[in-house]
Amino acid sequence: MKNILFTLALLISFNSSSQSWKSSEGGNAFDGKYKTSSIRGKGNNFPYNSPLLVVNRFDGKDINFYIADAGFFQSDTGIQVLWLFDSEPETIYYSLGFSISKDGKILFFNKFKSNENEKLEFEAIEIIEKLTVADEVVMRVSDNYGSNDIVFSLSGSSRAISFVLPKDERQILIDKAVSDRNALAEIEAKNAEIKAKKQLILDDLMNQAREEKLTSSSLSSLENKLEKDLGLSYSSGTGKKYKSILVEPSSSFDLEKSWQRYVYLFYILEDGTKEEIREAGTRWEVEMDAPIFSRVKEKLEADNKHLENILSKYQRVDLIDLLKKKVTEESKNYSKKFNIQDIESIKITLFDYRYKRFWKCNFNIILNDGTEIVPDFWTSVYDLEISKKELKNLGGEIGVAF
Asked: Which strands, in side-by-side order, build the sheet including 111-114?
């Protein structure tokens, strides 16, 4: 950038006193009336030694700002136009979004940026106004095939440009450009603030996931999912307020089997509700040393103790073990899912007595809130060899829940 500034600054020192602005007006029945002001410059790329910088406007239409005869141009050839005003010797402006004439001889200017602030975007009218306050401007017009450094005298430019567009009209357009730019900057600032807050949420949720020791593939998929749900990617997001992530064992999770490490992931929202995190083609998995293993083990121990306390009235270890197994299976039933710790009591009914033993058993599970869970199928107790006498000793009767 410093080299470009130095080279263009040298060109400003060239004598361009012979250059002068020309103004004209005219029109026709089809296009209406127009006014034009232009200046011939001095280039250093033969045969494009005398480029023409033009400002014109047709009645009721936007202003046109372009350069002609500075080269032959085509799209997708790396076209770049740099501007250096002698009134701003440290600032290089560059043009954005060119329009090219069909014959490739004219470049129309629209938007501009500068090396001082890459985020600010200037309108053509703002660069045109700079033509009225400087003495000279140097342009470098280039593409993949070469460049042309051009000097334009701005002596008389204020009068010439005012011929096309009076000062008060220019100021209205400039004020609007500045106002629009400030409004856009405010919107971008707000969007950046929102994005930064969302990024903090993403980072926090991902840290929680790492602490839960999700596998690398699961972490990668989760990050993509979070970015979509938070609106940090191409998606606009769900708009929901995520507070934390909850990891629970899946139905196939097994403490003893290293290959059964799949889990369910849930969002915990700010209002306390829980929402499962699903991603197409993804099964969430944890490492072998994930904290969920100790949590599951502790829960199993607590649930086992709770069931033993409730079932101790049945005295027989084999009956208690069978009931613990069946109640645990029932707690995982998708349509009846409940927490073992929420069980208040259990009642069993023995029936179908043949060959001096009971063959079948039903059990009812009563939860703390009064809900009663009834399994869909009876349980075989044939192998336990429970007799009528033993049932009586347990305090029960045939076909009666106790």
From this structure: 122-123, 111-114, 93-96, 80-85, 136-143, 146-153
